[in-house]
């Protein structure tokens, strides 16, 4: 009889999926238009303002008043969609593509229950999650627990995706930071709206993968205790892009040429920039690590109620190594780590019940 290591199978499946999606070179890679020039300089300065040493966490956030329309309703629940102008700083709005200036949100609520007797969780998008559908499926069964679901469409995704972008492959490194900063600002404004306008007594924020990183940042910066639920999330974007599967989907040569062009005389642009300046791929990777270190959640403040923070990691994740998840828990004493059996991709489909249980438990700790 042949014994099969199921964990190894999940790990290998992650890499097979990643190979088909990223290493075959059939599609456009990440950062195919380079670093982003002056946009990257602006983003680096503004993202640093989120860190505790800057003492500039900007609360209350910009207020929003979404324009709502009802998509459907039944005797027990209602789904609405809303639109509001992004709450980014005006300098960032100028850097965002026009398609991303208006934020979109779906709001699934139980009926016949007042907000003060309900909870609401804001669900943030993982890489490639362009629609509301998957996150609404995750939140839908929570209605019976009187937990509403609010789903934010990220900039550069869905109807907010710029026309020249292919799928989830962001064109510039600056786009990744801009997506994150805008998502954080918009999520904070939505939480403020839920509390001050809608009247919810308990709130939370969750997300899978990239959305989990953003959820951790939002939960960290919120001035009062909320449930914070990063699922299958690394402690930093450095992990997937510089150590994990996404490094095979990154346009390293373009980044090298772009970096070289910034350091050479404009009269020599026709020459081999990388050769002229001696910039190596490893130096480019070091530069990307430095930029993406701005997304390191372990540098953010401990949330106001760390007991209401539950990380969920996968035991055989080919994208996010175990040590990265444990770094999050180590940085936030009192938080909890739970493990589901499987890989990164398979856990998206197989463990929604575990994610829902974490949401319920975290809200109960508030």
Characteristic key phrases:
single chain, 366 residues, Rossmann fold, two-stranded parallel sheet, 16% strand, ABHD18
Structure overview:
This is AB hydrolase-1 domain-containing protein. It comes from Sorghum bicolor (Sorghum). InterPro entries: AB_hydrolase_fold, ABHD18. Pfam families: ABHD18. The structure is a single chain. β8, α11 and β9 (336-340) form a beta-alpha-beta unit. It is built from 13 helices and nine strands. With 366 residues, it is an alpha/beta fold. The radius of gyration is 21 Å and the shape is globular. The strands form two sheets. A seven-stranded mixed beta sheet has the order 1-2-3-5-4-6-7, with helices on both faces. It has a two-stranded parallel ribbon with strand order 8-9. The chain has one domain (6-262, 279-364): Rossmann fold (3-Layer(aba) Sandwich). It has helices at residues 6-23, 38-48, 90-95, 133-139, 173-198, 210-221, 238-243, 252-263, 273-277, 281-292, 322-331, 344-350, 352-364; strands at residues 67-73, 77-85, 102-110, 119-124, 147-153, 202-208, 227-231, 310-314, 336-340. It is 40% helix and 16% strand.
